Amino acid sequence: MRTSLRATVVAAATALMVLAGTFGARDASTAENLSDAEFFRLLDYGVAGLGQVQAAVQKGDYAAAKRELLAYYRARPANDAGKFTHKDWPGVLELTPDHIWTLGSGEAYLTTARFGTQEAAVSADVTSAITGRTAGFLLMARIKDPVTVVVNSREKASGKPALRLTLDDGSVRTLNPTADTYIKAGADAGTAYGAKDQLQVRDQGAGPFTAETRKAFLQFDLTGVSGVRNATLTLTGRADAAKDVMVFSNSETFVESTRTWKNTVQNTYSWQGDPGGFDWLLPTGADKEYWYQLARFFFAGPLATAYQKTADEKYADALIGTMTDFISDADGYGTEYGAGSYPRSLDTARRLDNWTAAYEILRTSPSLDAEENVQILKTMYRSGLHLQGNVHDSPNWMQTQKISLLHAAVYLPEFTAAAGWRTNAADFLAAQLNDSTYPDGGYREATSGYARGYVAQYVDLVEFMKQHGIAFPATEKLRALGHFLMDQTLPNGYTANYGDSGSDDQRSILRRLGELLGDQELIYVGTSGKAGTKPQHVAARYPDTRVAVSRSGWSAADSYLRYNIDRGPHSHPDELSLVTYAHGRELLVDPGTYSYSSDPRSDWLRKTTEAHNTVEVDNLPQNNTAAGEITHFVSNPAFDLISGNTDASAKAWHARSVLTLRSGVSLVSDQLKPRDTATHRYEQNWHFLPDANPVQAATSKAAVTKFASGANLTVVPADPEKLTAQVRNGYYSPAFYHVSDAKYASYVKQGKGNATFDTLLLPAPAAADDAVRINRLAVGTLTPDLATALDIRYGDGGRGTYYKSWASKAARSFGSYSFDGKMLYVQEGAVQSLVMYDGSSVKRAGKVLLTSPVTVNDVAATYAGSTLRVDGRGLTASTDPAKAIGIAAPNATEVLLNGIRVTFSRTGDLVYAAAAP
Predict the structure, then answer these.
(1) What are the φ/ψ torsions at residue 752 (nearest 5 degrees)?
(2) Confidence of residue 101 (pLDDT cuts 50, 70, 90)
(3) 337: closest CA among 392, 400, 386?
(4) What is residue 22's DSSP assignment?
(5) In what order do the strands lie in the sheet with 547-551?
(6) Angstrom distance (rounded) from CA 368 to CA 71
(7) Which pLDDT score, from 0 to 100, does residue 16 have?
């Protein structure tokens, strides 16, 4: 059924004026509405097949010209229209033709259930939600009419909502909700109904909602549930008249006693039955991305593809009708924002890509008439003209704009402007990599998802350009960006979450880019080692991007740490934050974003420093545009040492040093220098996954995770007696529009003068070590902000000693040790190891463990049984005691230098096999 076109352009423009701050000023290159005469002058009649169109135009018969133009496009051979931005979208085929739209994947349409006039149990198959680990549901009216559905809530004595789970072993579990409620618009928008014994569902009237709209939400707890074969949601209820209710999965936790219409960020709205269809504006209470994504036509791909597969005209008719409705209502005819550019240039680009790909399928549909065909082509032309001239600061915006422009230029050579579009887009996209990346190859937008998407679009672009004989000269810049993405990748192939983003598998992108460039390292990481060549490095520093990564290797079982002082669009106030992974799991996470709305959870995740693994000063967010740098990056085959600092906190300068061993064990030292003599509050936070179940040890105040299976982490603070420690409630968002409750460990110090935190991060492949203890060792009369030393007692009986100097290098004693360098960690036990930075002498109880005639930048010595392994950058084989490093290994019969067996000499307990440069 064709959508009725709305005659509300002026009203829409007036409403948009109120929100003018959302948009940039109108671009001078934007075209106004085109008359038929103007449009037909834009065609290149030198293109074969347009003769009949030209003949009709020369006669001034534009009705005939439109018919001939449609005939031309129906007969035109297939052309490359690029790709749809989305192959699928929740509920598109069932709901979008009825003008029901869902933003993102936080709410995903599952099915529709019918309630009759007599109270009865109604069941819905929700297996896809439960197997995807989504345990929340939204109920919403399918048809807009003045009928209310009443469903028993969990407060009801009988007929409670029930989730019946059939497990792989054939057993059955039935769960009742942990929370359920409904929300109501209008005068009751601030009322919470969580205590009611009934849930209500209703929707009626024109527009996205009215004062009578009611939606219901349910939440279940899947803790301990795995191996679900089938899941059925059963609801007991009735309606005033037979009523259909849509069931959506909902990836958001909520508190039933406080949830109201006012405080709910809603992602699904219905214009069902409204003769005007979508009004394309932002509904009150929706996430602000709602109208942007609606106008991008993400639903075009699924609808057009369904038509292509089935030849069912209902899909073509629905999509054509929605396109022409958009043109009538929102294409910006004469408005401040410019024809073809609603609501922003990024949305215009996404829409043009989807329309171009859709037009290739729709052009032969009987549902497309000659007038609609010209309307669509006019809008595509206006959009192209806008994208040719519009400029934006964001790299991903401009990349998206110019890729869309290039697709349109290749697909629509009938436009005289196409050649110019093609040159403009190709030249810009080749040059933009210089502007979008730092000299070290890192991406300027400080967000994992945007970096991945940016690289993905370049992969698609270069493949497209190759197919059409268009040169792309910036392959080495693209290779450098690909290696940056590769280095950020977690051992399991997913991206470490940072900035306005979520975690996603990026292996396919790395593989495709590697194949495109012939880069074997990218192919290796992109195929999880099944092809290609393993990268030669395990650690990487990006000094301009201000990011460093340490890892033990490139397999899923390896450890990983990301150290961040980045900045740029979409970054968070998270300077000096860490993310860690070990034994197959993320153990310290960036909690994510949730949405761009002003929801309190989104604001906490995106705008507070507390929501990141760093130190917050005086409850204030950092300024992530402030000065900062990575000052030290030492990568030894056995360890990495990363140090940096930032001015991002208004009240104190912050430096963080991290020693990370290849085992995944890390020691973190924070130094804070206030800018005045006042008392300040310093809060160091460590964030965990929702199912980490962290607990706090009473004496050590260590935070110990308790995952049901697999790897765990112990976060052990020094000086527990000087800290206020808590496991606090926070949030975790693995992807946009998904959010759940999560815990984090908080350590607070208050005082005047310099402050420090010293913290051990101890991963374990199974149960965490909850017996580990740290005792501070005195370093002469120096305070910990000048030199810190720790005695670490592990639960398995092992012992470690750690030393870090913030002051000038000098010979100092701590515990039974004396050392003249900047950093030292010694592990005692069956395997003895020593890692050292910038020193020449280590003694324990007066006995030499290491000595060198010159300062050694970095060295690691591991002594087990009869084998001594020595690792260090620049070390050369030498047995001369006057030049070589002496290492205590009384029973050593074999020495490996950087993994290669070498000869050695011995003087007493000291073995000489390597010399510093």
Answers:
(1) -100, 160
(2) very high
(3) 386
(4) G
(5) 539-542, 547-551, 560-564, 577-582, 585-588
(6) 11
(7) 30
Interval 359-417: pLDDT, tens: 999 999 999 999 999 999 999 999 999 999 988 889 999 999 999 999 999 999 999 99
Is the pTM for the entire model greater than 0.90? yes
Contact 89, 253 (CB under 8 A): no
Is 90 exceeded by the pLDDT of residue 532? yes
Helix (H) and strand (E) counts in the chain: 18, 45
Q: What is the rounded CA–CA span in Å between residue 366 and residue 378? A: 20
Structure tokens belonging to residue 27:
């671009």
Is omega for the bond preceding 343 within 30 degrees of 0, making it cis? yes
What gap in Å lies between CA 59 and CA 491, rounded to an integer?
67
pLDDT in tens, 22-35: 222 223 233 457 89
d(CA 811, CA 788): 14
Which amino acid is it at 285? Answer: G
* In contact, 285 and 265? CB cutoff 8 Å: yes
Predicted confidence (pLDDT) at residue 752 exceeds the cutoff of 60: yes
Across the strands, what pairs with 666? 660, 761
Burial of 471 (0-12, 13-18, 19+ CB in 10 A): exposed
* The amino acid at 380: M
CATH fold of 1-101+292-436 reads: Glycosyltransferase (1.50.10)
pLDDT tens profile 487-521:
999 999 999 999 999 889 999 999 999 999 999 99
Report how far apart the first and last C-alpha atoms of the chain are (Å, whole number): 80
Mean pLDDT confidence for 94-114: 95
- Write a three-state SS string for 709-754: CCCEEEEEECCHHHCEEEEEEEEECCCCCCEEEEEEEEEEEEECCC
- In angstroms, rounded to a whole number, what is the distance separating the alpha carbons of residues 117 and 858? 78
Q: Supply φ then ψ for residue 179, to 5 degrees.
A: -160, 140
Residues 94-122, mean pLDDT to the nearest whole number: 96
Closest CA to 801 of 718, 692, 893: 718
Residue 564 pLDDT class (50, 70, 90 cuts): very high
780: phi > 0 → left, psi -120 to 50 → alpha, else beta; which? left
CA distances from 483 to 228, 439, 460, 536, 542 (A): 39, 13, 17, 12, 11
DSSP class of residue 676 equals S
pLDDT at 707 over 90: yes
Please say if the pLDDT value at position 337 is more than 60: no
| Eight-class DSSP state of 613 | S
Residue 90 is predicted with a pLDDT of 85
User: Which amino acid appears at position 5 of this protein?
Assistant: L
pLDDT over threshold 60, residue 290: yes
Task: Give, in degrees to the nearest 5, the angle at Cα 180 between 175 and 183.
Answer: 160
Residues 6 or more apart in contact with residue 670 via CB below 8 angstroms? 576, 615, 654, 655, 656, 684, 756, 757, 758, 759
How far apart CA 843 and CA 886 sit, in angstroms, is 12
Q: What local confidence, expressed as pLDDT, does residue 10 receive?
A: 28
Judge whether 803 and 747 are in contact, CB under 8 Å: no
Return phi, psi of residue 17, to 5°: -60, -35
29: tokens are: 């290159």
Q: Which of 651, 24, 744, 725 is nearest to 391 (CA)?
A: 24
Pair 717, 774: CB distance under 8 Å:
yes
Q: Is the pLDDT of residue 805 over 90?
A: yes
DSSP strand pairing (812-814 vs 799-805): unpaired
Is 663 exposed, middle or buried, given 0-12, 13-18 or 19+ CB atoms closer than 10 A?
middle
Quick: pLDDT tens for 829-840.
888 999 999 999
3-state SS, residue 320: helix
Provide the pLDDT confidence category of residue 825 given band limits of 50, 70 and 90. very high
How far apart (Å, rounded) are the C-alpha atoms in residues 668 and 157? 53
Q: How far is CA 606 from CA 26, 498, 595, 697, in A?
A: 30, 10, 9, 30
